[in-house]
Amino acid sequence: MDATVRDSEFDKDEVFAMAEWKEKEKVLVGHRSGLLYECPSHGQEVEEPELVGQVPGLCGLATSPDGEHMVIATGQGKLIQLNSEYEVLAEVELGEGFEKMPVTITWRGDGKFVATSSSHGGSRAIKVWERDGLVHHSDGEVDSRVGEALSWEPRGGLLAVAAEEGGAVQMLERNGLRRGGLVLQQSQYIIQQLCWNADSEILGVLLEHKDGMGVGDAPRQVEDDVPFRQKMVVQLWHRCNHHWYLKWQEPIGGPAQLLWDDTDAKTLHIFSRVEEGWTSIKFVWDDATVTQLGTTVTTDGSTLLLNSFMKAIIPPPMCNVAILCRAPITAVCASTFADQECIAAVLSSKVLAIAISEACGNWNTLLADASEGSLVDAVDGVVHAKEATLELPKQWFVRQVSWQGPQKVLLLVDDFSTGALCERLVSFEISWGDSSTMMADMVQNTCLNDILGCTGKTVARVTSMAGGDSDGVLISIVDKRQKNSPGGHLSSVASFDGSQLLELGKCRGCCHWLLPLKADRNGLASFAARSADRELFIGGELVASNVRSFGCHFAGEEPTVLYVTGDNVLHSLR
């Protein structure tokens, strides 16, 4: 979904709820005044949205997953169910002591149940209702001080409920019983929205600072003409082995709404007021980063968790070495140069963090002290990455980072400074001054629209070339104008040497997972890519389906491609 609204009257009225009518291909927008608007949901700019009705005292709304029903809450304490033609199907009372406050409404993934969070007598109540007739099903067992934000996991197991002060998220079952939770440790923030992605793997959290400060910022005066800027923060959390990882954080302008893509579970749309309208920022989830020497790099907030699988297999969230950064990590990459493992991370504060191991990927000696061959700061057993500030405009959002050479990193940036999305490839040269002070200087800034020659193409993935002996990257480009069945869009894979693109092959579907197979002076001879439909391509040729994961082994003259299928069988190709 990607649409921009330019109507001045529409922007002046405060938007507080959004939902999608999938059957009608429309986005339903609710305003504090009670006005309901419909906007197209697929790549159109709207001068004047369609006004479809008004509900006096509108407090909340949500459409069902199948797009057939909608539930709205009114200021009179009513919960009303309607169909897509806005005909009333059921109407019930929210409960005694109802206070005219915002009501959060969320549907379970199968659409059989809907949950509400409403204010009653100074505290909020969580209630679960059945789809047929809005029959009351259960009450949530929550603390007395819970917030407005509420989101039901699509697969139906957990109902996420926000604490009032933003310090925690409680998890409930359908019967209302408690089932663990998540500690944010951000008591100075208010959780404005909780949002699960389509496959229930990621929980999005929208935070607002009470005093208009960003996370990690010092107190400052907020200008009157930009009262919301930089005080809203988006966080993405992922659970694995009973541990919650903070995988991504980004300050944004406000007000804002989060919406996960229903076709690509790893793409997040962030709607925030930028200049004249509403703009969608897409986030593509990145899997675990693995080096050629078998070291995995996992991000958890401001910490890089390293595990060397050549030495030992340690279950998460434990690790061999933890490297600390000064702010949460938004993008990370790892590569091997001259037997040294090099990690680059971009922080939410627009700072570049670098960590380089000793020879043969030896990180364990860093626990005692930073050795002569490594690039980190180690004090009393705590390892810190080297950091340098990146001179990036405020409206540039770093989506990916990749090593372009031994002393050069490449950023894939979404640029919204002109009001429309422009993808950029930005190169930074890394150098060191006195006392091992690191500096990062921008040496190249390329607008992809100029290279690709049109606006119908977008970059899905940027990854470093194999071998570490060539300054360049491998890029997966999705052409949204070309569709085929059943793979949807068509992807092309190309090498980029800093000035031009060299196409290497085409793949069916959107390929977010990409690895080079061989590099020479003329560029890459081949590549391996996996599409969102789990199809594995080598050099543009389909070689396997139902592929869960894959990797490349570079020992010998020819690389070996290893992949695991859905039936947990390991395969190898040469």
UniProtKB/TrEMBL annotation:
GO biological-process terms attached to the record: tRNA wobble base 5-methoxycarbonylmethyl-2-thiouridinylation
Main location: cytoplasm
Key word Cell membrane present: no
SUPFAM superfamilies from the UniProt entry: Tricorn protease domain 2
Pathway participation: tRNA modification; 5-methoxycarbonylmethyl-2-thiouridine-tRNA biosynthesis
Limits of the ELP1 first N-terminal beta-propeller domain: 8-96, 101-248
UniProt record similarity statement: Belongs to the ELP1/IKA1 family.
Protein name (Swiss-Prot/TrEMBL): Elongator complex protein 1
